[in-house]
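Project standup — Tuesday

K.O.: blocked on the structure for the chain from last sprint. Re-posting the sequence here as requested.
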Amino acid sequence: MHFHWKPSSRWVLLGVVALVGVVVCVLLHFYPPGQEGSFWPKCFFHELTGLLCPGCGSTRALYAYTHGDILRGMHCNLLLPFMIAFFAAVILKPELRFNRVFSVSLFSVVLLFTLLRNLPFGCCACLAP
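H.V.: unblocked you, prediction finished:
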């Protein structure tokens, strides 16, 4: 069964996602991650393996962005702004999910980023939060 998105439903979904994003950012602005007693979840993948997933550092990055510290946010997770743009593109143009070039490009970028940020070399260590 194939669900057909109406143009108005895409905008509603984008609005809901944006609203949730704003709420999360407001919470992050006032409740920083990593402090004792913080309710922000730790990365399950990192806790289990010791490796960095592509999302590791995203909460800290958003915290930095909410305080206007763009460079710190980029240091915490360089991929995050691009992933937000990718997800917005998929919400606005759902047919991108079925575009092979788009899907392979996204998967390749995420995989390469994940591999590079886990390498111990100096040039790759800057990708770790």
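K.O.: great, moving the ticket to review. Residues 7-30 form the longest helix (24 residues). Residues 117 and 128 are 5 Å apart (CA to CA).
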